[in-house]
């Protein structure tokens, strides 16, 4: 996208001097108060991303549209979310591709949904089951602010444990507490060759899920892993990992549907 930044868009302001990031939504009459001075939104609206703007005290800030990773880390959340480090692995290991039909539950704050919508493209479809209306509203808002109203997203206020209405699904991705309850149904509604993914915070839950996948003879290639991600500091002689990192998020469990041997 090469258009200038418009009113209503989100931007990242990057402090050129210390690399700190700030996230704002542009409004005609808005202003930003930073400890280094003030910037009016009208000084940003109409400029291309990558522009340098200066605070009232003359400090330089770069203006960028947020990447999906930045957007997810800054968007409002009412639930825990799937972090970008795990999203990256879900997209590749579950082989989410343009044209794919993916069913997910629950939508939560919409982090996974955003990543899926990007990956399946306009030819693909994302169906999302979520039990709670307030989370549907939160996720819709987050999605709308990043990519408008995607016509290929269908959100259903439904309990996934009560059954999946769709059939012939390419992928099922669950971020709910008891995904093992869905396995018999998932085996029916996934197409042959389809992939199931469970995202769970504790290994006790993972054990129940793997047991259920094994018991349902149609799942093979069952694997479990977690993603450890560590930033590094590269400044002068201080060339070392960051002191702090996200220690644990969740485990990924994958299985592929085939015919029962
Ligand atoms: C951890 S949040 C999901 C976060 C989401 N994946 C994201 O990345 O933003 C779990 C969600 O699952 C929903 N949920 C829990 N059990 C469910 C069920 N049986 N059917 C549908 N949604 C359910 C909860 O209401 C909550 O919104």
SSE layout and pairing:
Blueprint (H helix, E strand, L loop, with lengths): L9 E6 L5 E5 L5 E4 L2 E4 L11 E3 L5 E5 L3 H7 L9 H10 L7 E5 L5 H10 L4 E6 L2 H15 L5 E5 L11 E6 L8 H7 E11 L2 H13 L3 E8 L5 E4 L2 E4 L9 E7 L4
Parallel strand pairs: 7-8, 7-10, 8-9, 10-11
Antiparallel strand pairs: 1-2, 1-6, 3-4, 5-6, 11-15, 12-15, 13-14
The protein binds S-adenosylmethionine.
How would you describe this protein?
- The protein has 261 residues and is α/β, with parallel strands linked by helices.
- It has 2 domains: 10-66, Vcp-like ATPase, Chain A, domain 2 (Roll); 70-257, Vaccinia Virus protein VP39 (Rossmann fold).
- Helix content is 24%, strand content 32%.
- A 7-stranded mixed beta sheet has the order 9-8-7-10-11-15-12, sandwiched between helices.
- The longest helix is centred in the middle third of the chain and has 15 residues, at 133-147.
- The chain binds S-adenosylmethionine.
- S-adenosylmethionine (SAM) is lined by residues 79-82, 105-106, 108-112, 129-132, 135, 159-161, 175-176.
Assess the beta-strand content as a share of residues.
25-35%
Q: From the alpha-carbon coordinates, what is the Rg to the nearest angstrom?
A: 21 Å
Order of the strands making up the biggest sheet: 9-8-7-10-11-15-12
CATH top level label of the largest domain: Alpha Beta
Bound molecules: S-adenosylmethionine
Q: Summed up, what is this model?
A:
Helix content is 24%, strand content 32%. The protein has helices at 68-74, 84-93, 111-120, 133-147, 183-189, 203-215, and strands at 10-15, 21-25, 31-34, 37-40, 52-54, 60-64, 101-105, 125-130, 153-157, 169-174, 190-200, 219-226, 232-235, 238-241, 251-257. S-adenosylmethionine binds next to helix 3 and strand 8.
């Amino acid at each position: 996208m090469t258009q200038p930044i418009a009113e209503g868009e989100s931007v990242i302001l990057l402090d050129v001097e210390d690399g700190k990031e700030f996230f704002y939504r542009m409004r005609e009459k808005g202003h930003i108060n930073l400890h280094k001075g003030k910037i009016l939104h009208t000084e940003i609206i109409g400029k291309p991303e990558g522009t340098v703007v200066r605070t009232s005290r003359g400090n330089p800030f770069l203006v960028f549209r947020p990447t999906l990773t930045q957007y997810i880390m800054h968007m409002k959340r009412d639930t825990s979310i799937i972090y970008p480090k795990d999203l990256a692995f879900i997209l590749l290991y579950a082989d989410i591709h343009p044209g794919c039909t993916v069913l997910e539950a629950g939508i939560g704050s919409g982090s996974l949904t955003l990543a899926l919508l990007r990956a399946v493209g306009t030819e693909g479809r994302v169906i999302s089951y979520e039990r709670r209306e307030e989370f549907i509203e939160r996720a819709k808002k987050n999605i709308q602010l990043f990519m408008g109203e995607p016509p290929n997203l269908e959100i259903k206020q439904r309990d996934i444990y009560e059954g999946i209405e769709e059939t012939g699904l390419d992928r099922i991705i669950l971020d709910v507490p008891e995904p093992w309850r869905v396995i018999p149904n998932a085996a029916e509604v996934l197409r042959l060759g389809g992939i199931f993914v469970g995202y769970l915070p504790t290994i006790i839950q993972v054990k129940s899920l793997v047991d259920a996948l094994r018991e349902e003879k149609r799942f093979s290639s069952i694997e479990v892993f977690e993603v450890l991600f560590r930033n590094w500091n590269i400044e002068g002689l201080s060339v070392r990992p960051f002191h702090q990192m996200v220690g644990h998020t969740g485990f990924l469990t994958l299985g592929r549907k085939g015919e029962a041997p």
